[in-house]
Design a protein that fits this description.
The chain is mainly alpha-helical. 79% of the residues lie in helices and 0% in strands. It is a multi-pass membrane protein.
Length: 316
């Protein structure tokens, strides 16, 4: 079932490149769960792809990132990325609490908006124990909604403001949620390579942010243990450590070009399978009632867009 969903996602992606296979797959899983339902015979396989396959996909994501290429962006661009990501990830959960959202929903929305969309949401969900399927549903919905809108709005606003092509590339890479969405903006505006490189610079932050969050949750759990809860978040999940290892390996420059060319396609397939499995656990009826999650996603998108735009105007 997951394999069929991946084939469908890849075909739709060819027609609508702005929608990544991962986003199409999670929507397909959600639609299946809402219509025909998912029988008990499929559950073990879907659980496997939504966890084990997901971890492999996140680890392989590191092979797309060469640190020298990211550093070549210059300190100004790296500062824009770091500040916009850090501010958004820090402030969003606090706003979520004010809106009455759960810690899990607020954390996943902060992660998806500030770092790299669906992949970051899935990685954070696997690394902590404060979120469930409903939290993931709200966060994924936010990424799809506002990320897709950004494909139109970011180039339009850049033209109105008068940003140069270089500034547009940095802003898109620092503010837009999904890699595929950034690529769509870059391809349409002639800044594909620069925008995607900036975006991958954001993706590098996935490992330290997940590790720091997991460490903080361990400390909170030790300080105030809950009855019946025995699982502690790991200091750094093994698949996140593998992601870092893959970044290091890619940065050595010893990986054959044939491998680096094939890795994005392999990662897309694995991530689509994993997110299809995750999508089958989403309850659309609960998602439809998640107005506050949509509001928080809009606020978070506004924060990352405004902070990164200010940085671009000042430094780039």
């Amino acid at each position: 079932m997951a394999a069929l969903a991946v084939v469908f996602a890849l075909l739709v992606n060819r027609v609508v490149p702005a929608l990544s296979p991962a986003v199409i797959a999670v929507l397909s899983g959600t639609a299946l769960a809402a219509s025909a339902g998912v029988g008990g015979r499929l559950r073990p396989g879907l659980a496997f792809v939504s966890r084990r396959v997901l971890r492999v996909a996140v680890a392989l994501l590191g092979l797309q990132i060469a640190v020298p290429q990211v550093l070549a962006l210059g300190w100004q661009t790296l500062a824009v990325v770091a500040v916009a990501t850090g501010v958004t990830f820090t402030v969003t959960p606090r706003i979520g609490r004010l809106l009455g959202l759960t810690r899990g929903t607020s954390l996943l929305i902060a992660t998806g908006v500030s770092i790299c969309g669906a992949a970051a949401i899935a990685a954070m969900r696997e690394s902590t124990d404060v979120s469930d399927d409903d939290d993931a549903a709200g966060a994924l919905g936010v990424v799809v909604l506002y990320g897709t809108a950004s494909i139109v709005l970011v180039p339009l606003l850049a033209a109105l403001i008068g940003l140069s092509p270089t500034q547009l590339g940095v802003w898109a890479g620092a503010a837009v949620h999904e890699v595929a969405q950034v690529a769509a903006i870059g391809a349409a505006s002639g800044v594909l390579a620069g925008a995607v490189t900036v975006k991958l610079g954001r993706v590098v932050l996935l490992a330290p942010i997940v590790a720091l969050t997991s460490h903080r949750l361990r400390r909170l759990q030790d300080a105030a243990p809950r009855p019946g809860r025995t699982r502690r978040p790991p200091v750094m999940p093994l698949f996140v450590a593998a992601f870092l290892a893959m970044v290091i390996v890619r940065s050595t420059g010893q990986i054959p070009a044939a491998v680096t060319d094939a890795v994005p396609q392999v990662t897309n397939v694995l991530m689509a399978a994993a997110l299809f499995g995750l999508g089958t656990g989403i309850d659309v009826r609960k998602l439809a009632k998640g107005g506050r999650a949509v509001l928080l996603g809009g606020i978070a998108t506004g924060i990352v867009s405004t902070v990164s735009l200010a940085g671009v105007a000042l430094l780039v």
